[in-house]
């Protein structure tokens, strides 16, 4: 629930209600209908200047918990259907590797290439030019990640 700018808001630890103290404007002019309704509620029920936030559109904690559980269930179902669609469109990497090996083509993942580049860079047998080239190539792969 939106409250007017400059209002004091607190959480009542005894009741768990959020409360807003409305300004003490004598004229009441410029107040919206919602603010006037809150003032009437405050004056009639509290007397202390603190109005309990009573929004007709608010929900109980149990209603919110049920709605959240429904959202989680629907999200899981959506994720599962999405994963099934992806599995139908694409093949696993292991299957692709096997097919490429049959064609005598070696397929490497970015991770495998990066490991080779790092070992080439750390190798004492590599020349300075090879190390620089390895760093440039590694920069390309790291940038993709």
TrEMBL record:
Keyword set, alphabetical order: Coiled coil, Endoplasmic reticulum, Protein transport, Transport
Highest taxon listed in the record's lineage: Eukaryota
Ranges in coiled-coil conformation: 65-113
Record's compositionally biased regions (Basic and acidic residues): 16-35
GO cellular component: endoplasmic reticulum
Chain spans, region Disordered: 1-40
GO MF, any single term: adenyl-nucleotide exchange factor activity
A GO biological-process term: protein transport
PANTHER family: NUCLEOTIDE EXCHANGE FACTOR SIL1, PROTEIN FOLDING REGULATOR
Name of the protein this chain belongs to: SIL1 factor
Organism: Trogon melanurus (Black-tailed trogon)
């Amino acid at each position: 629930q939106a409250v007017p700018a400059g209002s004091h808001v607190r959480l009542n630890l005894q009741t768990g209600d959020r409360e807003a103290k409305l300004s003490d404007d004598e004229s009441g002019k410029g107040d919206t209908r919602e603010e006037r309704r809150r003032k009437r509620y405050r004056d009639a029920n509290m007397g202390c200047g603190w109005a309990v936030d009573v929004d007709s559109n608010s929900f109980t904690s149990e209603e919110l918990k049920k709605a959240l559980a429904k959202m989680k269930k629907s999200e899981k179902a959506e994720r599962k259907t999405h994963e099934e669609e992806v599995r139908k469109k694409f093949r696993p990497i292991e299957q692709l590797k096997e097919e490429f090996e049959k064609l005598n083509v070696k397929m490497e993942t970015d991770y495998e290439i990066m490991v080779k580049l790092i070992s080439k860079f750390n190798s004492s047998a590599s020349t300075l030019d090879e190390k620089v080239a390895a760093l440039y190539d590694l920069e390309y792969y790291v940038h993709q990640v």
